[in-house]
């Protein structure tokens, strides 16, 4: 009986701690003015203080999708913050990334690559706010076209933002991949002998601190060196069919990262100009891994997007 009582007491303590954490987060986000810029119509980013309203306790469900080499692990801090503040949050491992055991070189279509995301959306009731990071902008765009009724808002974080007929790769400015490959930040793999076509792409783990984690704590560089995996290449060359009635019906938001060495801020501006979203949020201190370098600021931007 004593042991059971002790167990109940510990459980109660855990719940109290979780509620306290949520209350602290609400206070911090509500009272501290963060340097996040937002604009509604013109893609030029201007400084404006973020205000968070009482809708922080909403029941919105966020679905977070990684880019090249990543996985659900990218978002562990932001998922924790969102859940502590009363939201639902799910992070997805796309095929061959994260804990997926599929070999990246064997994945050749967008449907294959995004299947875990599509399966997740098919399984849920109601709508979600979906976020795509980096190359994940292409993945969520495909999901927006496939399940528009399941997505209320789409957030593009330092990512591509395709238009109809573009590919995952071609929806980035033409300077992005030649620079990353030329600097050996990204490395192409050719698993089919005699074929000139790459089969996968992976981040150079010796250069993560230079182009991806340049503002992130050093321990996350170490984590990335252990957890990054190759990403299928061929899906990135498939043209997307994005229609006004499906993809175009969903509200889009862009989060621009000010210290990004992977997709430069000027390149993100080109993406924004080419396919204007409803609003742009500016994380001035963030590197490409905003969920690790500036998790509170990213969390705050997501809360604001949920409220509007």
UniProtKB/TrEMBL annotation:
<keyword id="KW-0732">Signal</keyword>
<protein>
    <recommendedName>
        <fullName>AB hydrolase-1 domain-containing protein</fullName>
    </recommendedName>
</protein>
<dbReference type="InterPro" id="IPR029058">
    <property type="entry name" value="AB_hydrolase_fold"/>
</dbReference>
<dbReference type="InterPro" id="IPR045889">
    <property type="entry name" value="MES/HNL"/>
</dbReference>
<dbReference type="InterPro" id="IPR000073">
    <property type="entry name" value="AB_hydrolase_1"/>
</dbReference>
<feature type="signal peptide">
    <location>
        <begin position="1"/>
        <end position="37"/>
    </location>
</feature>
<feature type="domain" description="AB hydrolase-1">
    <location>
        <begin position="62"/>
        <end position="300"/>
    </location>
</feature>
<dbReference type="Pfam" id="PF12697">
    <property type="entry name" value="Abhydrolase_6"/>
</dbReference>
